[in-house]
Amino acid sequence: MKRVIAIDGPSGSGKTTVAKIIAQELGFNYLDTGALYRAVALALRYYNITPEDDDGRIKEVLANIVVAFRDGSVILNGKDVSEDIRSKDMDYYSSVFSARKVVRDFLLDAQRQAALHNDLVVEGRDTATVVFPNATKKIFLDASVEERAKRRYNQSTGRGIEISLDEAREKIIERDQRDSSRDIAPLRAAEDALLVDSSSLSIEQVKKEILEHVRSDLKITL
Questions:
Q1: Residue 40 CB neighbour total at 10 angstroms
Q2: Radius of gyration of the chain from Cα atoms?
Q3: Which stretches does DSSP call E strand in the chain?
Q4: pLDDT band for position 217 (50/70/90)?
Q5: How many Å apart are CA 8 and CA 135, to the nearest integer?
Q6: Which SS3 state, helix, strand or coil, does residue 195 take?
Q7: pLDDT tens digits along 152-181
Q8: Which domains does the chain have, with CATH numbers?
Q9: Best exposed site among 76, 92, 126, 135 by fewest CB in 10 Å?
Q10: Other Cβ atoms within 10 Å of 119 Cβ, number
Q11: How far are the Cα atoms of 2, 115, 208, 209, 219 from residue 216, in angstroms, in the given order?
Q12: What is the pTM of this model?
């Protein structure tokens, strides 16, 4: 395995923005694991799969799909679905389906394969605890519920998605509950992760703190 910088954190904590910046600064490849789960959720819903369906039915659908993350775009069966996966419905279904072992197993190998030949900055919810427990460096990026709700509201409205600030807050709280209480790979900080609260920090300040931490490791001489 090549060098891996694993960044975990709850929805709206700024993982995607920060991970992309860190990857660019280090000259590493970037992998958005959350986007992969959203693409799987999109495929499952296309085949009318619901959270109540059993693992056998889900496995049948997974056998017919190919998901990849290429140059910042999410590809599902050869089609760019980067915009399709950002709907409010996919917020919900990606969280629900990602709690299923059959789905996590499906994507686990794909994520680990990505690190065999490339240095990676990877972000998600269990990248440092499950997917890459031996990552070179681990970061847990967090922020207050209020700050994350504001970010999600601005992000959604910027894409033309109608949502109120109260609705954004409720969805953040619901997502936190699902992600932290699920039986399989719950959201939590790895014991050896650097904890960064971005509530009152600028992107530049978060970048600086993470880069200082990453570059403190003698394995990364950049």
A1: 26
A2: 17
A3: 4-8, 29-32, 67-70, 73-76, 79-80, 120-124, 137-142, 194-197
A4: low
A5: 12
A6: strand
A7: 999 889 888 889 999 999 999 998 998 898
A8: 4-210 (3.40.50.300)
A9: 92
A10: 17
A11: 18, 21, 12, 11, 9
A12: 0.82
